[in-house]
Design a protein that fits this description.
The protein is α/β, with parallel strands linked by helices. The protein folds into two domains: 126 residues, NAD(P)-binding Rossmann-like Domain (Rossmann fold, 3-Layer(aba) Sandwich); 183 residues, NAD(P)-binding Rossmann-like Domain (Rossmann fold, 3-Layer(aba) Sandwich). It contains eleven helices and twelve strands. Helix 4 links the parallel strand 4 and strand 5. It is elongated, with a radius of gyration of 22 Å.
Length: 327
C-alpha cells in the first residue's frame, strides 16, 4: 500500500453504471482508498485476497479467500435472506449498511396511510371507482379523530422516529418499542422494550411496523397478535414483509378482528394476482415503494465515502450492523 492510512477497497459484482460512477468519485475524493471495480467472480477471487474493505455481497467461499478483510459495506439497508450467512457472522470483519437514507420518504408514506384511514379514504376510494355518491351515516362515521388516537410504532429506528414526529404533529399519542434505543425520540410519549409488545397492542388505534427482517422478527405478527389489537385498529407494515404472516392477516380481516390494513411490503413479492388482499375491503396496498424519492443514490454514496474516510483514519464506522441480528 502507498501509505500508512491507505487501503484497498473492492467493489464486488454484480456491477452497474451507478457503482462504477461511485468508484470513480471515491478514487478522486478519498485518495486513501485504492478502489478496484470487480466485474466477474473470477476477478473477485483474485482481488479479495488482499482487500481491506469491500462493497456488495460476499458468499462464504469468497470470504474464505479474503486474508485481510476488515470491513464490508452492505449494498442495502436490509439485504435479502442469505446475506448474513454463518461464515460472515463468525468473521471478525465489521459490516455497515445504508440505515437512515429513507427516513423522510417512508415517514411520509406512513403518514399517508394513517391519514387515509383516519379520513375514510379506504371507504371512499372504492366508492369513487363505482361512481357512488354515499356519505357516512353520521358525521363521525368514517373518521378517526387523531388528537384522541394512539399509534404504536414497532421499531423506533430512524424511520420510526420520523413517523413518530409527524404523527405527534397531528396530535397522535405515540407509543413505541425498540430493542436498541434507550430514550424516546421527538413525539414519542412512551418507549418500551420489544417484550412489551403484547401489552401495548390493545392500546393502539394504529399499529405500525418499521422493523427489519431478522431471526427475532420473522413472523412476529400472526393471528394471535392480530387478536390482541382493537377491533377498530388499523395495521400498517412498511418494514419487511417476512415480519407478517399474510394468511393470518387475511384471516384477521375476514373475522373483523381488526378494521383494516395497509401494506407496502409482503411475505411474498410480488403479491400474487390471485391473492385475496387485492380485493379485500379496508385494505390499501403499495408495491414496495415507500422508500421511493429523490437523492437516494446520493445518500448511499455519501455513506460509502464517509465510511471510507473513517476506515482510513481508524475511526468508528457509520451504521455498523449486528451481524447475528442482520441489522
Amino acid at each position: 500500500m502507498s501509505g500508512a492510512n491507505s487501503f484497498k477497497f473492492v467493489m464486488l459484482p454484480p456491477q452497474n453504471d451507478t457503482y462504477r460512477q461511485w468508484a470513480a468519485r471515491l478514487a478522486a475524493e478519498v485518495p486513501e482508498a485504492r478502489v478496484v471495480v470487480v466485474e466477474d467472480e473470477g476477478q473477485a477471487a483474485k482481488e479479495i485476497a488482499d482487500a481491506d474493505g469491500a462493497f456488495g455481497w460476499i458468499p462464504a467461499d469468497l470470504l474464505a479467500q479474503a486474508k485481510k478483510l476488515r470491513w464490508l459495506q452492505a449494498p442495502q439497508i436490509a439485504p435479502a435472506a442469505g446475506y448474513y450467512h454463518d461464515a460472515l457472522i463468525a468473521h471478525p470483519l465489521k459490516v455497515t449498511n445504508f440505515r437512515e437514507i429513507f427516513n423522510d420518504h417512508i415517514g411520509a408514506h406512513i403518514l399517508a396511510f394513517v391519514l387515509a384511514f383516519a379520513r375514510g379514504f379506504h371507504v371512499f376510494l372504492p366508492q369513487q371507482q363505482r361512481r357512488e355518491w354515499k356519505k357516512s351515516g353520521q358525521e363521525a362515521g368514517d373518521v378517526v379523530h387523531l388528537p384522541e388516537s394512539t399509534a404504536l410504532i414497532v421499531g423506533l429506528g430512524g424511520i420510526g422516529a420520523e413517523a413518530a414526529r409527524l404523527l405527534a404533529a397531528f396530535g397522535v399519542k405515540v407509543l413505541a418499542t425498540d430493542a436498541r434505543r434507550a430514550a424516546p425520540t421527538e413525539g414519542v410519549a412512551e418507549l418500551h422494550k420489544p417484550d412489551a409488545l403484547d401489552e401495548l397492542l390493545p392500546r393502539a388505534d394504529f399499529v405500525i411496523l418499521t422493523i427489519p427482517h431478522t431471526p427475532a422478527t420473522e413472523g412476529l405478527f400472526n393471528r394471535a397478535r392480530f387478536g390482541k389489537m382493537k377491533k377498530t385498529a388499523f395495521f400498517i407494515n412498511i418494514g419487511r414483509g417476512m415480519t407478517t404472516r399474510l394468511d393470518d392477516l387475511v384471516a384477521a380481516l375476514n373475522a373483523k378482528d381488526i378494521a383494516g390494513a395497509a401494506l407496502d411490503v409482503f411475505e411474498i413479492e410480488p403479491l400474487p394476482e390471485a391473492h385475496p388482499l387485492w380485493t379485500m375491503p379496508n385494505v390499501l396496498l403499495t408495491p414496495h415503494m415507500a422508500g421511493h424519492g429523490p437523492y437516494l443514490n446520493d445518500r448511499r454514496y455519501d455513506i460509502v465515502a464517509e465510511n471510507c474516510r473513517r476506515f482510513a483514519a481508524g475511526k468508528p464506522l457509520m451504521n455498523e450492523v449486528d451481524k447475528a441480528g442482520w441489522f
